[in-house]
């Protein structure tokens, strides 16, 4: 019975897989009738995810029978280790996936996160569409630069900002994987609040700003950021460097806040706000809140 549910969930998503996209969520927990189990496909390599430390024998048998490289990640806020190899050939080092025709570097050996968040696929496509040429796009909390690559592919000049030098180097590689010269763009290491204030003093303006922070983080000086407490200030600072006619994409996966509460926090005076739905392969819960402010 479970095998049929899993097969059905995978079959429903077949149309998402195209020549330009080979990474998606294949199974999404209760949304596909399998509570507590999710499965993501990264260019044919599978990542199973559970909130606890067990996978049922029926699910294990189904995963093993697939013949795929299968890894397992425990969705535990205290678990920071890389996913565990379960079945099939081991994946040695980084590899590439495709999304909307763009190439991104992924690794199953990089710790808790693999290099890209698949729930942002629609938003990255929208950023690429909006960057028709010549725009200046600022990507805060950039991680490995997915939004920056999408913006640059659309023709924009991207400024990529993150606390981690490791992730900024990863972002530069993602530019090069797509045949783009990373030296033609900007990479800033440091705190988003600091850089936004600095940009404002310099009189710099951006046509688009992406704000997708972790729900909780601590900067190099020990200052704590919490979405529910600090996102409003962050959006206000970003508004000071937003050019006329510009837009902001504000995102959070913080579950203890409603869509309306988040919109109220990020909407700037005189600007409109539009909510973006999650990709269709994420069927269990609309946890990602995405608001386009323009």
Automatic annotation (TrEMBL):
<dbReference type="GO" id="GO:0032259">
    <property type="term" value="P:methylation"/>
</dbReference>
<keyword id="KW-0808">Transferase</keyword>
<keyword id="KW-0949">S-adenosyl-L-methionine</keyword>
<dbReference type="GO" id="GO:0008168">
    <property type="term" value="F:methyltransferase activity"/>
</dbReference>
<dbReference type="Pfam" id="PF10672">
    <property type="entry name" value="Methyltrans_SAM"/>
</dbReference>
<protein>
    <submittedName>
        <fullName>Class I SAM-dependent rRNA methyltransferase</fullName>
        <ecNumber>2.1.1.-</ecNumber>
    </submittedName>
</protein>
<feature type="domain" description="S-adenosylmethionine-dependent methyltransferase">
    <location>
        <begin position="62"/>
        <end position="255"/>
    </location>
</feature>
<keyword id="KW-0489">Methyltransferase</keyword>
<dbReference type="InterPro" id="IPR019614">
    <property type="entry name" value="SAM-dep_methyl-trfase"/>
</dbReference>
<dbReference type="InterPro" id="IPR029063">
    <property type="entry name" value="SAM-dependent_MTases_sf"/>
</dbReference>
């Amino acid at each position: 019975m479970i095998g049929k549910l899993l097969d059905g969930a995978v079959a429903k998503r077949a149309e998402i897989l195209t020549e330009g996209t080979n990474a998606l969520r294949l199974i999404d927990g209760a949304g596909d009738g399998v509570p507590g189990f999710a499965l993501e496909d990264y260019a044919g390599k599978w990542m199973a995810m559970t909130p606890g430390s067990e996978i049922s024998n029926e699910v294990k048998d189904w995963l093993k029978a697939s013949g795929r490289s299968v890894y397992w990640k425990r969705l535990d806020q205290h678990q920071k280790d890389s996913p565990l190899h379960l079945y099939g050939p081991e994946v040695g080092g980084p590899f590439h996936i495709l999304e909307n025709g763009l190439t991104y570097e992924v690794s199953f050996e990089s710790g808790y996160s693999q290099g890209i968040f698949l729930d942002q696929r629609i938003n990255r496509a929208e950023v690429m569409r909006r960057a028709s040429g010549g725009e200046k796009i600022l990507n805060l909390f950039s991680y490995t630069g997915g939004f920056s690559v999408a913006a640059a592919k659309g023709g924009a000049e991207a400024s990529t900002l993150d606390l981690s030098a490791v992730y900024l180097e990863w972002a530069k590689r993602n530019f090069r994987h797509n045949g783009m010269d990373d030296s033609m763009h900007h990479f800033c290491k440091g705190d988003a609040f600091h850089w936004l204030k600095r940009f404002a003093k310099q009189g710099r303006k951006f046509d688009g700003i992406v704000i997708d922070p972790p729900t909780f983080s601590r900067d190099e000086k020990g200052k704590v950021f919490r979405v529910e407490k600090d996102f409003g200030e962050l959006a206000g600072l970003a508004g000071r460097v937003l050019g006329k006619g510009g837009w902001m994409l504000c995102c959070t996966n913080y579950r203890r806040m409603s869509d309306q509460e988040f919109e109220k926090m990020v909407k700037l005076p005189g600007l409109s706000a539009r909510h973006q739905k999650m990709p269709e392969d994420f069927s269990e819960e609309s946890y990602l809140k995405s608001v386009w402010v323009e």
